[in-house]
Amino acid sequence: MPRLMGSALTAETGLIGRFRTLLGDDAVIVTAAEMEGFVEDFRGRYRGAALCVVHPSSTEQVAAVVRACAAQGVPMLAQGGNTSLCGGAVPAADGTPPVIISLARMRRIRRIDAANGSMEVEAGCVLETVQNAAAEVGRLYPVSLGAEGSCQIGGTLSTNAGGTSVLRYGNTRENVLGLEVVMADGTIWNGLRALRKDNTGIDLKQLFIGAEGTLGIVTAATLKLHPLPTHHALAWFAPTDPQAARQVLGLFQANCGARLTAFELMNARQLQLVVEHVTDRRQPLEGAHDWHVLVELADTQGAADMEAALQTTLEQAVEAGLVEDAIVASSDRQRAALWDIRHSVTEANKKAGVGLTTDCAVPVSAVPAFIEQATQAVRALDPQIDVVIVGHMGDGNIHFIPMYPFDVWRALADATATGAAMRRGVNDAAHALGGTFSAEHGIGQTGLPEMAHYKSGAELSIMRAVKAALDPRNLMNPGRLIPDPLH
Amino acid sequence: MPRLMGSALTAETGLIGRFRTLLGDDAVIVTAAEMEGFVEDFRGRYRGAALCVVHPSSTEQVAAVVRACAAQGVPMLAQGGNTSLCGGAVPAADGTPPVIISLARMRRIRRIDAANGSMEVEAGCVLETVQNAAAEVGRLYPVSLGAEGSCQIGGTLSTNAGGTSVLRYGNTRENVLGLEVVMADGTIWNGLRALRKDNTGIDLKQLFIGAEGTLGIVTAATLKLHPLPTHHALAWFAPTDPQAARQVLGLFQANCGARLTAFELMNARQLQLVVEHVTDRRQPLEGAHDWHVLVELADTQGAADMEAALQTTLEQAVEAGLVEDAIVASSDRQRAALWDIRHSVTEANKKAGVGLTTDCAVPVSAVPAFIEQATQAVRALDPQIDVVIVGHMGDGNIHFIPMYPFDVWRALADATATGAAMRRGVNDAAHALGGTFSAEHGIGQTGLPEMAHYKSGAELSIMRAVKAALDPRNLMNPGRLIPDPLH
């Protein structure tokens, strides 16, 4: 049975009937058991209630659902693969239970134009499906991240997903040419252009990318494809410290230009957790080193050239005293094994304890200072705290993770307050350096207090004005992204 | 003397006095003679009247000017280098004369962070100054276009300027990390972040990029810098036709990946006009060819590799029957001479006659069809019309230019109507192929009827809602970008 607010019972029952008429009975889910996977996030940290879950199969059906909700003033929450790390994809524990509009049945790849480097897909396509479809025509859709096997394109668009290819290809925002959006009143905006250049008025698609469903529901997109790099060269090295890592990044940028594709940093503690907690993961270098970097070059040809460039650059770095040790992957198998270490951090950290994941970015030049100052901040709160660091150093995006053993966490007097204080300490360090508290994860539920705390009044006012203009009754994913939207 | 509307005389005189107090006497221009360079565009095609021209030197002064105008309901027009090709930077011939807010005195480079690849500059900095300052620290600011010696950063941001580097580096939009904007009520929004990743709410800077000053006045920006390519390889070749040019583009993308920096197409007529009308320009290839392409690769190293890649790719193309003839530049001098041909088209076309410049983009795959269908459209109107074609083929952006000898143009019964019909024919051809009527020039005054004609009601409604939210009294550059903004 859906959870209903007593007084609204009749109207809401009417709404569910309307959905059944519009979409068919099998596309409307109302029982608690069936709604289970939609009202709780995949890590089991956020849980809310929904009026029902609907599964439209077309843009027109989404529009009809939105119109029906709007007519009764019922809030809506668009959901993709439900892989948000900050409670962005499930209803809040309080507030009016929304209609969850799942995009999962809208999963057609409508069109691929390899010559134009573009691809029109529906919002419910799984990211990996899109990557594979592009690769089949010799093209690359570059957005790549841990959840790519289950997250949906609509979700990656609404959160402007980052990942491990941002250094070279940019965030999701930079890989979108056009959007189709259902607005708060049910109007369909067709902005599915496949153009590299189009200067005709306000670039509306930018509003919906990263808006987390608060301004409208993305139903389809035209994505930008790139030439598919078929040759890769990868190295793992130990910089003497984060400052040295930054200098080596500079060497790679100078020597390898646009072929530089990844530059991922982790500290010794992060590597140790992966080796301890994930099967078949081994230390890549001999001896103990405080810091580790995975660096990758990619191109459409010239593997030998790239390996030579890697080798030369690392030799320069060793000579300059910036690097303690390094290996260059000599086979695809070795390359995959090194990437496996990087991709295992989430699994390892989940097994190792309670990690207070943060998602700061600072200017790349400020990464060493950020790591130092964030460490001081959390050690001031707890001198024993374990600090795990992993990040996309090339983008200045460092996941700084204070980590508690499970038993220590359980023994804390007020774990929630401790967690909030720790995160605030890390975020303050980033903010002081011109950085952000959310580089790629978005706001969801977790980030709302941080929005209110760090954003200027001017910035919040502009956001509220835009929100009020496009969703005047605050029905689209209310309680997300913008604090007090009707302020 | 400023042109004043009779009834508003006192209030407006008061406003000028207020500006003098705020900015100093030398920063307020009111005589017709001194305003001359601000009220007419550089080609002498658009002319309007202004209440006065003010020259604020700081963001706070801009904000004070905006507040003063807002208090009296006087419209404002922000002006940069006045190099718009569509009347975007000067007042309209009709309507209330605005206060022109020149950003020319705001020309400080506030900060360069080479390690972060970022640079904070004020809106009045000339584009070339910015390019040079970046190069001095070994970095590239990639936006490059004909007017770079006089256009200002604020103008390039407000129009999302394109140019010859878009293929590799994207438009201006993709090279901006942060903005500082004075809003319609005089509030200053400081969004000068220097971050590669920041997912904290609506990405407000996107609203102002390309908004042509209708939502606020950009006073400063944090620009994205890239590694400076120090090695270049360039070729000029004659593809058999546009379809062959498109296929050769595909070969270059496959063989040269991210090093491909320019792929510029022109027809024989365009080349002929350059050779005839500009001193020291010569045909680069022997014999007659219908189509010409300039292709350039650039990287931070490996000039020999790039020349080899150029050579190999062109040989493949010749073997496949796609290319009639080709030369690879063998020196920097030769390279510069070939670029000089490309950069001389505006001068040549100005001398050759009256060119009805258009600025369409279509999907790259549709460029051959666009050229064919646009040619049919204009020949249907005038079988004798001379067709000049030059464009950024790699972006699908083709400047298709019906060209009249001066005497023929003057003899036309209704030149304005003929020009409009010709342009509409070209734009229709682009629109039918999913293209746009303005790829990089923007809307200004010329494009407003096209906005009303081609944009969907849904799209215009969203733009109007955003405009009304941020500039409810329509005082920021009224009569631009959005038709009937208070509709």
Automatic annotation (TrEMBL), chains A, B:
Coiled coil: none annotated. Keywords: FAD, Flavoprotein, Oxidoreductase. The keyword Oxidoreductase applies. InterPro entries: FAD-bd_oxidored_4_C, FAD-bd_PCMH, FAD-bd_PCMH-like_sf, FAD-bd_PCMH_sub1, FAD-bd_PCMH_sub2, FAD-linked_Oxase-like_C, FAD-oxidored/transferase_4, Oxid_FAD_bind_N. It is an enzyme of class 1 (oxidoreductase). One of its GO terms (biological process) is respiratory electron transport chain. Its EC number is 1.-.-.-. Residues 46-228 form the FAD-binding PCMH-type domain. GO terms for molecular function: FAD binding; oxidoreductase activity. Belongs to the FAD-binding oxidoreductase/transferase type 4 family. This is Putative FAD-linked oxidoreductase.
